[in-house]
Amino acid sequence: MYWVLALMTVALVGMIAAGIYYDMNPPKPDNTRVVRRMKGILGANLLTFVSAQALLVFVAFQQVMASDAVSQGVNEISIGMGLAMIGAGIPTAFATVGAGIAVGPVGSAAIAAISEKPEIFGRSLVYLGLAEGIAIYGLVVTILMLGAIG
């Protein structure tokens, strides 16, 4: 099992290192061979990471279900409770993604407006706060759901 975790870690560190390297040293646009090679390497690395993650999920699930603690029924958190906790975290995940999508255009419009009229800085912060409030609403819903689960 640890070899799958090691494979995932190596693939993830490889993707991060390649991203940092190519961000600092971008290839020339006329050098298509390097760009094609880079896309192939990153694609293979991503495929390795996703395959290892899927393998880990399926293999780890079978090993956990076959362990002695599960077969004896001495388990503090059941599968249903675990799924309920994952379900309680989903509103925060979607709310933060939505807030990120909202803050992008609002922030760029606010910067453009501030560059033309600096006196509207306070109003633009209010709009950014409203867009960021979406994430807080998701967090509140998650806290309420966790209170209902426990």
Structure description:
The protein is mostly helical and 150 residues long. It has two domains: 2-72; 79-149, F1F0 ATP synthase subunit C (F1FO ATP Synthase, Up-down Bundle), CATH 1.20.20. It has five helices and no strands. The protein has helices at residues 2-24, 32-65, 68-72, 79-116, 121-149. Helix 1 (2-24) packs antiparallel against helix 2 (32-65) and helix 4 runs antiparallel to helix 5 (121-149). The longest helix has 38 residues, at 79-116. It is flat.
Radius of gyration: 23 Å
Structural class: mainly alpha
Total domain units: 2
Can you count the helices?
5
| Separation, N- and C-terminal Cα atoms | 32 Å
Describe the protein's topology:
Blueprint: H1 2-24, H2 32-65, H3 68-72, H4 79-116, H5 121-149
Helix pairs in contact: 1-2, 4-5
What's a concise summary of this model?
With about 150 residues, the protein is mainly α.
Notable characteristics:
single chain; 150 residues; mainly alpha; F1FO ATP Synthase; flat
